[in-house]
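U., I forgot to send this yesterday:
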Amino acid sequence: MQSTPLDSLKKEHFIYLTTTGRKSGKPHTVELWFASQGNRIFLSHEGQETDWIKNLTKIKQVNVRIGSARFHADGCLASNGEPRETGKKTLYEKYYGPASKEKIDDWFELSTVIELTNPTPLTS
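Result:
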């Protein structure tokens, strides 16, 4: 498997996600747990939609910082199918270790999974 710019960042615990305010147009940054697989980054949130999720669904282009690395990426909700399943498994296993599909499904039952794709390194 070919390495990606994200491979060296897998051990970092937090991502700093910056969305653009859907009403204000101003940057909105949050600290989140994340996991990456290949050239994709996965995030999750349990509970009601937050401003950053509402922003992301309106304006899909986001900026992220992981450690000292900065990227531009495209975000979307991973509502079902392979992106959601991969996101759940990758996130769970990063923070808690291997588990059965049933345990992972139960853990993410009330969660929104977000997929960030096309991460492009930002300079300066």
